[in-house]
C-alpha cells in the first residue's frame, strides 16, 4: 500500500497527508499558530455566509480547519482512486482525481469542521485581534514617538500576553518619550495612535 501511495496517481494525496502531519505537529508542540484572525471586514453578508458554510465562521482554529480539510482531501482521493481501480482496473490520472477529491473533501470538511466547532464549546483563545488592543495602555520602550516618527510600545492584553506595536502621538504636535504610559485610542493599519497619561484630556475638570 505504501508503494502504491507514492505512485503518481496517489502522490498529491501523499503530499496532502504529509502536510497534514506537519501541521498536526505544529499544533501539538503549541506554537500558538492555531487561531488566526479570520474576522476581517468582508463587506457583504454573502461572504460571511460562505465562511460559515466552510466552517470558518465560528471559533475553530484555522490550522485545525486546514488539518481537517487535508485529511478529508486525502481520504476522498484514496477512496476515489481505489474505487476507480476496482471498477476499471486502473486509477484515474492524478489531475482528475485531485479535482474530484477537492470537491468531495471540501464538502466532507464542512461537516467535519462544523462538528468540531460544536464539540469544542469550551475553546478559549488567548489570541486577540488588533482592534482589541485599542483602549488599552502601553509603555513606550525606546526613543520618542512623534507624528511621522513612531516608536515601539509594549501593550499587555486582557490575557496577560505582551504585544509590541508602533505608536505615534494622537495629537499632531505631541511627543511620547521612552517610558511614558500611553492610552491607545485609534489605529491605521498596523500603526496605533496614543495619548499620554499626562494629556489634559485625562485631567479632572
From TrEMBL:
Keywords: Membrane, Transmembrane, Transmembrane helix. Residues 11-108 form the Inner membrane protein YqiJ N-terminal domain. The keyword Manganese does not apply. Pfam families: YqiJ_N (PF21001), YqiJ_OB (PF07290). The chain crosses the membrane at residues 9-33, 62-80, 92-112. Residues 137-193 form the Inner membrane protein YqiJ OB-fold domain. It comes from the Bacteria. This is DUF1449 family protein. It comes from Sphingomonas longa. The lineage of its organism: Bacteria, Pseudomonadati, Pseudomonadota, Alphaproteobacteria, Sphingomonadales.
